[in-house]
Every structure is written in structure tokens, then in C-alpha cells.
Amino acid sequence: MCSLWFSHYTEPMGSEVSTGGGRTARGRIERRQAILDGAFAVFARRGYAQTCVKEIAQEAGVAKPTVYSHLNDKESLYREAVEVAADRIGARSLAVVEQLREVAADSDPCAPLTDVARDLLRVFSTPDARAVRQLACAEAAQFPELAASVRARTTLRVRSALADRLARIALAGRLRPCDPEVAAEHFLSLLTGPLEYRPDAAPDTVAAQAADVFLRAYGT
Amino acid sequence: MCSLWFSHYTEPMGSEVSTGGGRTARGRIERRQAILDGAFAVFARRGYAQTCVKEIAQEAGVAKPTVYSHLNDKESLYREAVEVAADRIGARSLAVVEQLREVAADSDPCAPLTDVARDLLRVFSTPDARAVRQLACAEAAQFPELAASVRARTTLRVRSALADRLARIALAGRLRPCDPEVAAEHFLSLLTGPLEYRPDAAPDTVAAQAADVFLRAYGT
DNA sequence: ACATTATTGAACCCACGGGTTCAGATGCCG
DNA sequence: CGGCATCTGAACCCGTGGGTTCAATAATGT
Fold it and tell me: For chain B, which domains are there?
């Protein structure tokens, strides 16, 4: 959605054409959200420096001054857009990790860990997720706090949640005793590392290999 | 080296001041190199878009037209500078991996693998190495081939060399049979993954943990 | 109906920086 | 010494794009 900037012309909602428009049906917040979505899409496509605000306005189906009436400047636009997207990715990842809550204390954690690996990698392979990582690290020099914020909202959050689950499993005697934070890091590294080496590898086999190696190292 | 831009002022060679200068003692190529070094330093500090060519010229102790007489434009400047630096990092990493050639076929590979892990991580933690990774991925959207080229010169090269060594060790029966490419990927992932999570962690302990987990998973 | 608020398009201002030009200055080589 | 190549500094041209202004327009609430 929201990739054609014609969208707001073609919208079924009549009487929403051409110029002008006071407090329209779509509230102020929805419009702001549309702008942020458009911003994220264009930034992801072109990168920060190559993106001009006019293009964002077009993508959101909105005029340039409208953009500036919602966000103060290009920089805020970037920050907000990336952080919102990062939150979304983080939430999805967390939901996946939470699957591990249902692991029975007396059962083999192999299958659930493999499933989680697969699902996590699918989330990480999403175009959105890739874009978030890309955008955060691309401007890390210019906006260091943004990079930190994105890390906190995604990777660190996931690592922490995963460490919690692993700790419980280890306590149940289904993993060897270990530092759960380090174990979580290793799990995620095995999972996402290959993304750098072979961005186009089949996620499912990569995930299976990662889970296998993890269990060989951390299993009992 | 090459991080202080004072270097060419502090050079012993006198009579190298102020304006003018024909075919000076330092040949054309050395000057070109100085420019590339300066470019890398400034790009690493400010990022591509925030860097103006004038600043690079100053850093290299050279006038702006001189810069353009050696490299055609800002883009070439970036490509060249980053690729040269990437080659340097790649070479250093390869040298480390080559240590594994001396592993006796009948000895425990634990110690040498741990050493290699430590030394590799030290190379990867270098400011230069961090900068190369940063610069390559930062402009990946604008210069995709540069990102690919850097990956080929660093990560892929190292993975390939490491896979060769691991294959020999496995063949000698000191590692379980496995796909050496995948094993190398896992080794490197365990090593560099934690860099993302805790950029300031002690490299030596991270390396030790990585080697330990790797051997638990791949040892016999 | 009327004031209010949100929006629009288009024009506008202006700083920034990539890239060029040019007249001097300087060192090297024959 | 004279021709050649190189470098310098400073000025210059100009496209790009961030951000603003403004009159016109349209929906909303009362």
C-alpha cells in the first residue's frame, strides 16, 4: 500500500479530491501516520541524503507544507519513521520469542527452538526489517542516538526476551548451565550472521542449521 | 597509521611548504595515496553526504583542484578510498587465518582456533575495520557494487580461507564431518555477532566464548 | 451563514557544496 | 637557463533541495 502517490486521488472516498480540505474524515493522526509511512518507504528506497521532502509528500499523497506542519524537519521525519518501523519489527520478533513460554519443562526443546529460529529469521528477512537495519546503520554517523534507539527496540529487546526463555529451559535441565545472555547472543548470531554472507540463502535451512549448532553447543 | 593528518607536515622533508610545487620528491602516486588516506579519514568521521571535498583536501594537505586532478569526482574518491582500506583489512584478516596452516594434524585444534578467534576479533575491532564496514553499508543504497566489492574483499575472502583450513582439520578427524563453508560462517558469526550487541565488550573474552561454543558444536 | 482549521499549489529565498577556471608559483629535467 | 608538469588559492558558476510564505479552497462545528 501507499506506494502510488495517486492513492489519495483513487481512494473510493469521494469528495476528497483536488485542493483544499479542512478537518477531513481521516483524522490528523491518521494523516501523520500516512506521512510517516510514505517517509519510510521513500527513505528505504533512496536513502536519507537522496530523498527530498517533496518526494515524501507525493508518496503520502499530501502537499509539502502539510508534511512540515506535522513534522518539523527532514531529520525528525527520518527519526520518527525509522523508530516507528523499528517498533513494529521488534514487536513481531518478541511475539515469536514468546512461543518459547509454552515449552514443557520436561520435553526436548529442539523442535520449539528450531521453530523459533525459523520464524525469527523470516521476520528478519522481511523487506521492512532489512530496511530498518539498513536505515539505522546508514546514518549511524549522523544520528548515533537513532542507531542506538533502533538497536534497543529490536535486537536488544529480542536478546533479552530470548535470554529469559533460555534461562528457564536451562533451569529445567534441558540446556547445560550457561550465561543466558551470552547464549541468546550466540543463538541470534548464528541466525543472522549468515544473512550477511548469503543474503539470498533459504531462511529455513539457515535457521535449521543455526538451531542445530546451537543445540550441539548448549544442549545436554 | 594514516589517522593523523599531520603526518605530511611532520615529515622530515623540508622545503615542502606554502604554495606551488612541481614534481616534488614525493611522487605522484604517493600524493594520490595521501589523498585517499585523507578521504578515508574524513569519510569515516563525517559520512559521505556530510563530507565536502574541500575538507578532504585540507586533511590531505592539498588544494582542492589537486584532489580533482587525481580522482574524477567525489564518488570515485569514496569508492577508491574505501576499497583500498578494505583490501588492507582483508589482507590482515587473511594473515591471521593462515596461522591455521601450521596446525598439526594430530593435535587438538582448540588452542590455535582460540588464538585465531582472538586475533581476528582484534583486527575486526580496529577503528579502520569498523569504519570500512560502516562506510560500505552506509551507502549500500547508493553504491551497491561498492558494498559487494567490500564484502568480497573482506568477509567472503576470510570465510573462504577459513573454510579451507577447517576442511583440512576436519579431514584429519579433529572436527566432526561438516560443510566447511557453513562451519566457517558459524565461526565468524559467533565471533562478530556479539560486536553488534556489545560493541565495547572485551574482545578476548568474546573470542574465547566463540571458540568454545564452536568447538562444542563442531569438535569430535 | 460564519468563523475556524487543515490543506493545497506554487512561488520564493537562500545556503551549501560539487566541479571548473585561471593566473601565478615552483620544482625538475635536459 | 628554458620548457614542462604539477600544485596552489581564490574566485566563480550553478544545480539542488530544505524550509517558508501566501492566497485560495474546502470541510467542520455552531
Answer: 5-71 (1.10.10.60), 78-218 (1.10.357.10)
Q: Is A23 exposed, middle or buried (0-12, 13-18, 19+ CB in 10 A)?
A: exposed
Q: Kindly determine whether the C-beta of residue A92 is less than 7 Å away from any atom of nucleic acid strand C.
A: no
Contact between A189 and B189 using a beta-carbon 8 Å cutoff:
yes
pLDDT band at A11 (very low <50, low <70, confident <90, very high): very low
Q: Give the closest nucleotide to B55 (alpha carbon vs C1').
A: C17
DSSP helix/strand/coil, B219: strand
Tell me the chain B residues in contact with residue A218 when contact means C-beta distances shorter than 8 Å: 213, 216
Contact, A188 vs B193, CB < 8 A? yes
- Name chain B contacts of A130, Cβ cutoff 8 Å: none
| AA letter at B52 | C
Percent of chain A at pLDDT > 90 equals 84
- Contact residues on chain A for B196, CB-CB shorter than 8 A: 151, 155
Least confident span in A6-15, A121-130, B88-97 = A6-15
Do A219 and A175 contact (CB within 8 A), yes or no?
yes
Contact with chain B for residue A182, Cβ under 8 A:
yes
Report the alpha-carbon distance of residue B87 to residue B67 in Å, rounded.
Answer: 22
Q: Which residue is nearest to nucleotide C27 (CA to C1')?
A: B22
Give the other-Cβ count within 10 Å of A94's Cβ.
16
Q: Which is nearest to A73 in space by CA: A106, A48, A95? A: A48
DSSP line for B116-151:
HHHHHHHHHHSHHHHHHHHHHHHTTTT-HHHHHHHH
Enter the pTM of the model: 0.90
